[in-house]
From TrEMBL:
The chain crosses the membrane at residues 177-198. Keywords: DNA-binding, Membrane, Sigma factor, Transcription, Transcription regulation, Transmembrane, Transmembrane helix. One of its GO terms (molecular function) is DNA binding. It comes from the Bacteria. Gene3D superfamilies: 1.10.1740.10, Winged helix-like DNA-binding domain superfamily/Winged helix DNA-binding domain. GO terms for biological process: DNA-templated transcription initiation. Residues 25-92 form the RNA polymerase sigma-70 region domain. Residues 122-174 form the RNA polymerase sigma factor 70 region 4 type domain. This is Sigma-70 family RNA polymerase sigma factor. It comes from Spirosoma aureum. InterPro entries: RNA_pol_sigma-70-like (IPR039425), RNA_pol_sigma-70_dom (IPR014284), RNA_pol_sigma70_r2 (IPR007627), RNA_pol_sigma70_r4_t2 (IPR013249), RNA_pol_sigma_r2 (IPR013325), RNA_pol_sigma_r3/r4-like (IPR013324), WH-like_DNA-bd_sf (IPR036388).
Length: 201
């Protein structure tokens, strides 16, 4: 069964309703979906619950998979939408942190560079947290999961030019928030420097 593609497994599961085909898909994607949920919640128990919910939802939705996009892209879309809905609930704070791809820097043993990179990551994190969950999802799907413009358009039922426009607007907002976060860190650094020098004046 290992040699079957995702799409073949979906077709076989729909045709036969044999759990073995769905279980194979689960084995392939459970960890990836869990990590994506964890990037939204930062809570391992909540991420497990969300992962469980997503695969339950997947069983129901599999019959609607039209193969317009790769199965993995379609599953990530379900994952993002489910996590976004979860984050939108009133009792949740909108909070996403960067995982694979956002802060991959080869810093060597230079502690100064490591500290600088940590500050940059914090600024980016602050900026991301100010975006709407839908905007976060779009950016993360494009730049973390490398989902193509065409696939994003198919998944969202909009044109490729509309996806590009949304990405541009979201990047512009992220850049604005990032610069505001940078200013915040700069003011903190100045305040800290002044408080250190103050006794010597």
């Amino acid at each position: 069964m290992k040699h079957f593609s995702d799409e073949e497994l979906v077709r076989l599961y729909i045709e036969t309703q044999k759990n073995a085909y769905f279980e194979r898909l689960y084995e392939r994607y459970c960890d990836k979906v869990y990590r994506k949920c964890l990037s939204f919640t930062k809570d391992p128990l909540q991420a497990e619950d969300l992962t469980h919910d997503i695969f339950l939802k997947l069983v129901i939705k599999l019959g609607g998979f039209k193969e317009q996009a790769k199965f993995s892209t379609w599953l990530y879309s379900i994952t993002y939408n489910h996590c976004t809905d979860h984050m939108r609930s009133p009792q949740r704070r909108t909070e996403v942190y960067m995982d694979e791809g956002w802060e991959r820097l080869d810093l060597g043993a230079d502690d100064g560079l490591a500290e600088l990179a940590e500050m940059e990551a914090q600024k980016l994190k602050l900026a991301l947290e100010q975006l709407d969950p839908t905007e976060q999802s779009l950016l993360l799907m494009k730049y973390q999961d490398n989902i193509s413009i065409r696939e994003l358009a198919d998944l969202n039922g909009i044109t490729e030019s509309a996806v590009k426009m949304r990405l541009k607007r979201t990047r512009d907002k992220l850049r604005k928030y990032y610069l505001e976060a940078a200013l915040f860190w700069l003011l903190l650094a100045i305040k800290a420097a002044l408080s250190i020098r103050w006794p010597f004046r």
